[in-house]
Amino acid sequence: MMVWEKTEVVDNTMEVVKRDGRHLNFEPEKIYDALRKASDEVFPMSPVQEVKLEHLTDKIVATIFDRFDNNIKIYEIQNIVEHVLLDANEYKLAEVYINYRTKRDFERSQATDINFTIDKLINKEQSVVNENANKDSDVFNTQRDLTAGIVGKSIGLKMLPAHVANAHQKGDIHFHDLDYQPYAPMTNCCLVDVKGMLRDGFKLGNAVIDSPKSIQTAAAQISQIIANVASSQYGGTSVNRIDEVLAPYAELNYAKHMKDAEEWVAAEKREDYARAKTAKDIYDAMQSLEYEINTLFTSNGQTPFTTFGFGLGEDWYAREIQKAILQNRIKGLGKEGRTAIFPKLVFTIKRGLNLNAEDPNYDIKELAAECATKRMYPDIVSYDKIVELTGSFKAPMGCRSFLQGWQDENGQDVVDGRMNLGVVTLNLPRIALESKGDKDKFWQIFFERMAVMKDALVYRVERVKEATPANAPILYENGAFGKRLSRTDSVNELFKNRRATVSAGYIGLYEVATAFYGGEWESNPEAKAFTLDILREMKKAAGEWSDEYDYHFSIYSTPSESLTDRFCRLDTEKFGEIKDITDKEYYTNSFHYDVRKNPTPFEKLDFEKDYPVYASGGFIHYCEYPVLQQNPKALEAVWDYAYDRVGYLGTNTPIDHCYECNFEGDFTPTERGFQCPNCGNSDPKTVDVVKRTCGYLGNPQARPMVNGRHKEIASRVKHMNGSVGHLSNGDDLESVEIDSAKSRFFQK
């Protein structure tokens, strides 16, 4: 294809003033590209047509420099283009060009038109009602939340700086959670200071709640804390080291049972009696907590996105709590034993504690592996690697966001009670496509977009600082965010000095490298180095922003439940279908290996391990397995291999269950639902279909909102998780030693 070259009249002093007020260098190539795109719609491209477009572009550029000296407004450029086309009798070309501009103006207006979007909700348009995999749009309070979200998005777009709103609408960036923030100055995800709240007491509504005297009461209080926190923010609610948090309250149960035993039980049996009774209390408390979380419904119309981190407790009480969490998850919910969707379980593996067979808690690691083969959770975090990557140990906030190490004024490392202030994600594949193979151009556009993202993130910070403690008493006054503020305090006391994070996300490293090196680039060291350079530059910029503003700007591997589709759809409209990039109809999530390829788990982990070094603010790896319920040792071996390589690893394994024929495995997606491949059953009442969507699990079969879209969801599950790491299939897999060459490792 011929490419228009600049005429001599072009210099570098001209600037274009965009609608949002930004000043950018004048790039005549964009005029040629716009004419070329319009021409493709009405004329077959030929050498003659290309020459004609070049001459038209030359005339437009000459007119611009004849009439303007230093800068020109974007609408003035468009007016000149239209007049030149009309003067040249290029009426069809002018019509397409004018219609495109009118359509863009119309779409911009619709984005802030509440009535227009409400109509889409009433008509159950998928882009509105299918917000996430765990939100049922047929439920009244979900409908109310979706309606409020439409209002929030419309107002939020008007509140944003003009250039940020424009970049979001075009798809250069994505300003996450517009339905909540900036309309309301809400925070995102957090690690709740449950330990401090249980220890010191707190207030909910009109009730002043004292420190619990048993593990049952402590567990019940945790569920109420989670419900209230989830209703006061818009992200995931995580409880860090819950086994260690609850252990002192289990010890209170033990003391009570020992007191009873002293009165009624023979001396030599008192210890056994008290332990047995306490173990039963622990199991029942963990069972109740799991049921309560899965039956909670917050003000935003969904079960709270809850994460429990555990696995580091060493005493008998903490060990029993760990086992009870896993045993309850394995047993499942109800008489049928359905897989619990929440809380997300994150089990910590630590060398010397539970990694190896000689470690004191190794038996619990074995139980965790069994649980993951049957329920997909727990995911695992590697203690030493998390400390290396983030500066201290902690569970993730939500599904993958990680706080960085931070010390208070006393030099104490603080994790619990900290939070994230929001996410903005950069569309990296678009930059690659716009640069047309020119890396210098790529970096120029990259830094321009990073500047816009910086402004968006700074605006998030400034907006959330406008909240008052009275806006969310559970967070600011009653201890969920650690330090308790008075009503006259500034909420910024809990954000400043890098106590809070704000996240710069990204998507589509695979597609970026594909644009420059082709779709099979993973084994090309130069290509991989380029993708690492991108994250390295993002991290460098985030460090500079942190120094400038004293909030922790972190690089975040975005969990793009719908953004993988949105960015790709917008770029397909802009650039057309491009092999291995837009033709897939999705972009690859964060740094993941191309989902269409089939590496072993070891190849996949070795490939991905280099990225979280530069994206420690949020990351997760996945591997996909066949049915592993008869072979948990296979999964454990991958965990062991991952320990010194990656910090956070999730499991994808088929766990769908048919209660008619007792089939367990992977159901077949159809247009009407997920179907048992053994007996054809698709009745939601007698099947349990669980899929991982990004960091969380979801039950698409049970959600009326997704009926008719099950094939789409099945494919999206794959590309959202972005990672395969396949093992050999078969039910009689046996693990063998992992040699230095990482041979296939699983054999029949």
Your description of this structure?
By secondary structure, this protein is α/β, with parallel strands linked by helices. The chain has four domains: 13-107, no CATH class; 161-183 and 419-587, no CATH class; 188-388, no CATH class; 650-744, no CATH class. It has 24 helices and 25 strands. Strands 4, 5, 8, 9, 10, 11, 12, 13, 14, 15 and 16 form an eleven-stranded mixed β-sheet that branches. Helix 13 (316-331) links the parallel strand 9 and strand 10 (344-349). Helix 5 (114-122) packs antiparallel against helix 7 (140-159) and helix 12 crosses helix 13 (316-331). The longest helix has 26 residues, at 270-295. The radius of gyration is 28 Å and the shape is elongated. The two termini are 52 Å apart.
What level of helicity do the residues show?
40-55%
Domain module count? 4
What profile does the largest beta sheet have?
11 strands, mixed
Alpha carbon gap, first and last residue = 52 Å
Question: What is the overall silhouette?
Answer: elongated
Q: What is the mean pLDDT?
A: 87
Spans of at least 5 consecutive residues whose pLDDT stays below 50 are 6-10, 703-710, 722-748
Number of strands: 25
Strand portion: 5-15%
Q: Count of helices? A: 24
Radius of gyration: 28 Å
Structural category: alpha/beta
Pfam family, one: ATP-cone
EC number: 1.17.4.2
Domain Glycine radical: 597-722
Protein name: Anaerobic ribonucleoside-triphosphate reductase
